[in-house]
Amino acid sequence: MENKKHFGWSQNTLIALLGITGCLGLGLMLPVIPGNSETHSKETINIKDLSLPALTEESIEGIKSSMLTSWQKEASTKGVRNIPQRFQGTTFVEAKLPASEKVIALTFDDGPWPQSTSQILDILKKNNIKGTFFVVGQMLQEHPDMGKRVVAEGHTIANHTWHHWYHYMNPQASAFEVDNTSNLIYKVTGVKTSLFRPPGGIKTNGPYAYAKNQKYASIMWSSDSVDYSRPSVPKLINNVMREARPGGIVLMHDGGGNRSHTVQALPQIINNLRKKGYRFVTIPELLELQDKQLQMLAVKKK
Predict the structure, then answer these.
(1) pLDDT one-digit tens code per residue, 104-148
(2) CB under 8 Å to 121, separation ≥6 — which residues?
(3) 94 has a pLDDT exceeding 60
(4) How many other β-carbons are positioned within 10 Å of the β-carbon of residue 196?
(5) Is residue 230 within a helix (H) or strand (E), and if so which, with residue range?
(6) d(CA 92, CA 220)
(7) Chain-wide mean pLDDT for the chain?
(8) What are the residue boundaries of the structural domains of the chain, listed by start?
(9) Each residue of 28-57: pLDDT tens digit?
(10) Which of 1, 109, 198, 258 has a 20 to 30 A CA-CA distance from 157?
């Protein structure tokens, strides 16, 4: 009996401690609003007035929803934006801009990969450049922190399918490839992307047609580094510079294989383009520039 009483007392004590811990946990969840101590003294909350049962599953979901909304707003201030309507459901290779408008977009496919994506982000940050990253869904699932960093540092994140398959896929498989990737991008970063790039630039195997039907802008490229074949660093640089032009889109890779040559070449590519007077933009910024140019031309025709 004595042992039973002792166990009963310990169990009651444990329940009480759990209750206290729960209250403390709830206290830690309450937001702390910065301000001066005078303001705080006027807004002191009486703990007796708190109704703990009111913190239901529904209210917790509300808190989570509010946090996500805040995250999305933060993402929108870092260059994430909707694309102009005229480009929805279209294929875009480059912007047709005046020769004096020397802008170019650096894009990176097949990531995120822990080492090469991180190294490329470091280079872009050092040079104060924003790029566009077309991520593979299964790689983002493996390395969500890299995806978060892409957005946190002001770059654009976009859809490059879930598996990066080249073979033909039926409508259901194509929908999976595109939708699951966009859903994960949203879940990880809070960004709803409307940009898509078909793996290998293939337009006939299913995902491209599905993305087009869903009003994604399919982004191709005008300057191919051919870094997937691992050319020498000088050759890689030459590949980019040979086809660089105002309004152009440069294709490179931060994942999908050994990208050490891309990492080595990128600083020199940036320097060479800057010497030629180029400034760097994201794909949404490039689309906006093209949209404004077309609007101006339309006004002149009237």
Answers:
(1) 999 999 999 999 999 999 999 999 999 999 999 999 999 999 999
(2) 149, 150, 153, 155
(3) yes
(4) 25
(5) none
(6) 6
(7) 83
(8) 85-301
(9) 333 333 333 333 333 333 333 434 345 566
(10) 258
Establish how many alpha carbons lie within 13 A of residue 27's alpha carbon, considering only the half-sphere containing its beta carbon.
9
| Average pLDDT estimate for 49-66 | 53
Contact 130/280 with Cβ under 8 angstroms?
Answer: yes
List of residues 6+ apart from 180 with CB closer than 8 A:
137, 162
Say whether 167 is catalytic: no
The residue among 179, 220, 223 whose CA lies nearest residue 202 is: 220
Residue 227 near residue 257 (C-beta atoms within 8 A):
no
Q: How confident is the model at residue 301 (pLDDT cuts 50, 70, 90)?
A: confident
Per-residue pLDDT, 38: 32
Residue (of 137, 117, 143, 215) closest to 183 by Cα position: 137
Pick the catalytic residue: 109, 110, 227, 254? Answer: 109
Please compute the mean of the pLDDT values over residues 187-212 and round it to a whole number.
98
| Type of residue numbered 189 | T
Instruction: Please provide the size of the chain in residues.
Output: 302
Classify domain 85-301 at the CATH topology level.
TIM Barrel (3.20.20)
Catalytic residue among 155, 160, 253, 261: 253
What is the Cα Rg of the chain in Å?
26
Active site residue 109: yes
